[in-house]
Every structure is written in C-alpha cells, then in structure tokens.
Design brief:
Nucleotidyltransferase, domain 5; four-stranded mixed sheet; 3 helices; 4 strands; flat
Amino acid sequence: MGILLDLALTAAPEEHRREEPSDALPDPRAEARRQRALAMLRAQPEARRVLLSDDADQAYPGHVVLTVGLRTETGMLCTADLLVRRERYDGLAVLELFERHGGTVH
C-alpha cells in the first residue's frame, strides 16, 4: 500500500495493532480524531486513505496533529497521529501530496 501504511504498521507494537479497538484512547481529542478517521473510511469503502488535521489540540502546543486513516489490502482499518511543528506545516502541500496518492482529505 505504500510508505504511509508501512510507517503506520511498523510504528505500532504488535499488541496495539487491532482493526476494531476494544477500548478508547485515553486522550479524548485523539480518540475523537481516530473515530472520525475510521468513520470516514467506513463511509467511503473505495477510499484507501483519509487525512484530517487538528491545529487546536492543547496537548501539543506549537504543533498540528495530522491523523491518517488507512485501509489495508485485507480491509483492516488503521490510524496514526503525526505531529508536525506549526512553523513547518504547509496544509496545501499536504493536500497536494495526499490527493496525488488518492486519499480523501478533511
């Protein structure tokens, strides 16, 4: 599926890899982003990737949180949060990159 999936799958320890989590993340904002990404993937079965950004998460001052949702070739749904320093974040560049690789951006 490409580099994003490779990163997401190798970044998560085996015990944290699960298609349908049985419990919520301890951070309510992170859990809300994760649920939104999963809902976007479920609502668009043809989408392999979705992306959302959060520039107001007080847990990460000076950063933009990018939540990437991925659908594997087997249908497993994965999410990962990426932190980008606000001064280095270029939303248009992220949008262009994501659109070029067939994702859905919100």
